[in-house]
Each structure stands twice: as structure tokens, then as C-alpha cells.
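Reviewers of the previous submission asked for a worked example of the structure-prediction workflow described in the proposal, so we include one complete record here. The input consisted solely of the amino acid sequence. No template or homolog information was supplied to the procedure at any stage.
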Amino acid sequence: MPLACVLLFPWPLILLSRQHPGIPVAALSESRKVLYSNLEATEAGVQPGMRDIAALSRCPELHAEVITAPSAVAAWAELLETLYTRYSDRIEGRMPGIAFLKIGPAAARELAAALHAPVGLAESLEVAHLAALRAKPGEVREAGGGTAEKAFLALTPAAHLEVIGLTGAHIHRLAFLGVRGLADLMKWSAAQREGFLGVDVGKRLNRFLKGERTKAVQRYVPGHVTEARMDLDGPLYEPTEADVVLAELLPPVLTDLRGRAAAYLTVQAGTLGGTLSATRKLKGSPDAAGLLRIAGLALNDTGALPLGVESLTLQLSGIQQPGRMVGLWAGLADLEVTKDVLDRFPEALVRVNWLDPFAYAVDARYEWVDWLTGAVRPSAMTPRQSWRPALTRTQAHQQAVERTLAFFEDVPL
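From that input alone, the workflow returned the following C-alpha cells.
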């Protein structure tokens, strides 16, 4: 069965175009500058890098919106779940906007028509990606295999060579030499490609031309989403009332986590006009109070409270087991690694004995001691004493008394 590549790039612009069909839309950065714009907006004069005010002056009917990264990632994960449910169990979508899956030609045509997206079919992921770049929205482009694939690759333009590892700088330098596509690079020798493009990029291109490509898609692991929902008797308008409802929704969600960590928190607010949602990225593993505060901020992002919230749904997605940093060897008592090492190399291990971590002199901060005996290990790693520590008040008094007694003992009576 061939491999398919579905292109929905740029993903933030695709999301806005689906939410507002038939009108000019533009995806903005956090600094309110245009990142992407659709065809209607571009024809009206909207260009990337333009401020939102300047874009609206060019196109008054433009809908410009900031698509945050958590919202885009959450929507992409939802799309992958849909593809997994309806089309295939082997899906890869590491980068939002580009999805690889294992399906047949008939299913690929159905998918292209359903998403109105270009789809490429080939025997490898790289060639399928190149085929998708040359397909029209809603159509499928097949690269074939054998001689047909070689002829297809020969027609690859230089602008599509980023798929196989080249950067924009490489493509610009190749254009300066008159290289129009992959067919011209095929005429070069392997050494010439490595010398001009660099060893890493050149070797990757040489392996691609020899046929060393990715011909398998990993099995998709559906993400687990835990949620809690509450339908309210009357609409909510005040943040304090919403905090009480969110506090009641949190305990069952935290119980379902069972010590795991979540990457995203989503709040869905049902209003009379529809459902509004907002997603926030979680950093680390916040406690219940922290999650309640983040949920309140997400609810504020939806802007649903002035409209009246009739239902609230709290979701945690991207659930995984948190990683923890352990020692060099796990379970020293069970493995007895330390004992085995000391039996073979008695002087291999040392410990650090902290004297004063805040001292200015290095030799006053710490010293290396033997692992077993605790004696100071004089070695190249041991800091040398460059000063004599001052006597304490008790030691100085005792030393003065001893000198006085020694003086009177020598005086004859």
C-alpha cells in the first residue's frame, strides 16, 4: 500500500479559513504582524510582515486573528485523531500542517476532497511530500514507482528541495549557478554535491538519490484526553461564580490523571450563540491551585462570560508520564555497581565533601574524599590550600595562655 502526504500548510491560516470561509483572512503573530494571508487577502494588498492596522486599511473586510501555538497544536491533534478514526492506524504528524499516513489511492482521493488539500502518493515519505507540493488543493498526485518515480523526481523544481534537506541559502546559491531543479543536481558527482552543499546535506542528498528513503509510517498512538463537564441551571456572568464551578470540575480530572502530567488545558464554554474554547500550555506539573488559576485565565481568553456561560467543560490533553532525573545508577543497593567498581578499581570513586559552598576561595568550598574511608584524597582534582584558616577566638585565647605559661616557666624564682 502506498504512503500519502497531506499538506495543510500553513496550519494557522487553514484554521482561520475554515472558521471564516469566503472572506479575506490573515494569521497574525503575537506582535500583531501578518504571518500568512489567503488568496483573497493577498489580492486586496495584504502582505506578510504588515501591521494589522495597515492590513485593515488595505482590506477593510479582512479578518485578522492571532492563533496561539497551544490552540494550533490542540486543533492539529484533533485532526490526527479524526484521520486515525476514519482512514488509517499508521499516521505521523510531527509538524502541524504536514501529515503522513498509509492509505490506498481511493481513500487518498476521498481524503483530498474532504479536506480540500493537496495529497501526494508515493512509495516513500520524501517522494510523497514532493508529490503533494505539486498537487492542487483537493487533488491527488501520484509519483509511481521505478522508472516513473525517477522521471517524476527529475521534474522537481529547486524550490521543493527543502524536503530532502536543503536550506533556503542552498537553494539561493544553486539558483545563482543556474540550477533549476533536481535534474541538474543529478548530473553532478557525489563529491561535487558534498563539496558545494556541505558534507551533511550532500550525504543526505546522495543517499536520497541512491534510493535510501523512509518507506514506513509509525503506528499512531491516540492521545488520551480527560475531561469534566457541568451544565448550569442559569448562565454565569461573574468570574467568581465561574471559579466555583471550575473548582468542582478539577477533582475528577486530577483523579483521572493518576500522577501523570498534561501538556495542555482547554476550557470550553457553552453560550447561547455557540461554544467558545481556549487552550493554555501547561509548564511543568502545576498543583490544583495552579490549574484552577490557569483554567480561569483560559476562560477569560474565550470571552464567553459577558455572553452568559450555560455549560463548562474542562479538558486536559497531551497526557504522559513525567520524566524524572535519577542518579548515575538506578538502585545501587540492588545492582551493587559501586561495590563491583571498587573491587576492581579501589581508587576510582571519590566523594565531594562541602565545606562552605559560599566561600570565595575554591579550596574553602569543598574537598574530595575517599569513597569508603572519608579521608581527603590528594589528587589533581583536590583544590590546594592557598591560605591558612584564621584561628577562632577560643583557639587564639588558648594559644596566648600557653605562651604566657611557657614564659613564666622559664623565669627563675
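The chain has 16 helices and 14 strands. We consider this example representative of the routine output the project will generate in years two and three.
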